[in-house]
Amino acid sequence: MTLQDLWLMIKHYSRWVVLVPIICGVLAGGAGALLGMVNGSVHTAASTLTVIDPTGLVSSTSLANLVNVFAQDQAELESGGDSGVTVKTEVDSSTQSIKFEVAAPSEQASLDVANRLAERTADAAQSALVEQGTAYMEAVDEMGSQPLTEEGTYINAGATADERAAALRSCFFSVSSATKVEAGGMVSLFVKYLTIGVLGGLFLVVCSLILVDSVKRPMKSSKDIETVTDLPVWAVSDNRQAGKRLWMNIQFAAKSHIESICLLPVSGGKQMGIKEAISEAMSEEPSGDMGDSSIRIEACDSIEKSIVGARVAKEASVTIVTAVCWKDSEPALCGVLEELQLASANVVGIVLLSGEEAM
C-alpha cells in the first residue's frame, strides 16, 4: 500500500477515522477520570542520584548495577502498604545515575520520600564501596605476590592494588533533590487517558484500513484497473453529459457497427442506471449517426450470480464491464475478464462507478 492508497482509504472511511478515535478517547478518558476519583489526588516528585568516580578506574556498568541493587531495596521499603506510595526507578548507565519517581497522596510526602530514597541509597552504596576497597586491600596483603581475581572488585584491569583500593574509596555520590511536585488528580488523568485513547483509536483505524486493503484489495480509482488491464476505463458520474460521453466512447472503441451491447457487472446485480444513461444518449442522437435506437442493451447479472451473462457477452457486438469503487476488488475484475476472454467476448472498455452511483 502506498501513501496515496492510504490517503484514499482515509478519505473514503473518513467517518470511521473520526468516530473511532473519539469513541476510544471518551472511553479512555472516562476510565482515567474514574481512576482519579477512586485513587484520589496523586502527587509525583523525582530525585536523581549520580555516582562519580574521579579516578576513572571503576567500571561504570558495575557502579550503576551496584547502585540499582540498593535503590531497589530502598524502594521496596518505601512503597506498598497503606501509605499509598509508589516508587519507580530508572537507571542510566551512561551517566551512572538513577532516577527515583515517587507518587504519593500529598505533595510533602512525595518530596520527602523521593529525597529520602536518594540519600539512603547513596549512603548504602558508599558504605559498600568503602568495604569493598578495605576487603580488597586485605586480600592483597594475605595473598602477597599471588595474582588476585578481578571478580567483585568493580575495577577495570591495568591498575595497581593501591590505585584500585583508592578508586573504590574515592567514589562519591551527588543527590539532586526533588523540589517540584506534579499534581495528578482526576482532571489530569482524564486528559492523559483521553490523549492516549485518541491516539490509540487512530492507530487502530489506520491498521484496520491497511489490513482491509491487503485482504480485500478494493478498487479505489481507475489506476487500480489500469494495473491489471489495458482496456480503457470510463468514469461515469450522475449527469446527462456523462451518459453522452460514455455512449460516444463506446462507439469509438467498437470501431464497427453496433447491434447489441452487454453490460456485465463485476459483482452484484444489473446496472440499470448505466443502461438508462446509454439509452437516453442514443435517443438524442440525430438519425443517420452511428447511434441507432434499434440497438439492444442487455443489462446482466454478474457472472458470480449467473453464467447467463457470459453467454450474452459472447453474442453481443460489444461488452462493457462495470465495476464499483470500494466494492469490487482487483482479483474479482481479473476473474471476470478471464471468463470473458474464454467466451471470446468483445470487451471494449470498463465503466468505473462510485459506490453512490451503482444502481
Structure summarized in a few sentences:
This protein has 359 residues and is α/β, with parallel strands linked by helices. The chain has helices at residues 3-12, 14-39, 60-78, 107-143, 161-170, 186-216, 222-226, 240-254, 272-283, 308-315, 330-342; strands spanning 42-52, 86-92, 97-104, 172-176, 182-184, 233-235, 260-265, 296-299, 318-324, 347-353.
CATH class of the largest domain: Alpha Beta
Largest sheet: 5 strands, antiparallel
The count of DSSP E runs of length 2 or more, i.e. the number of strands, is 10
Please mark out the parts with pLDDT under 50 across 5 or more consecutive residues, or reply none.
144-153
Please tell me the CATH architecture of the largest domain by its name.
2-Layer Sandwich
- Amino-to-carboxy terminus distance: 29 Å
> Can you give the mean pLDDT?
81
Pattern of helices and strands: HHEHEEHHEEHHEHEHEHEHE
Indicate the proportion of strand residues. 15-25%
Q: According to CATH, what is the topology of the largest domain?
A: Alpha-Beta Plaits
* Continuous helix count: 11
Number of domains: 2
Percent range for helical residues?
40-55%
Structural class: alpha/beta
Structural Rg: 38 Å
Shape: elongated
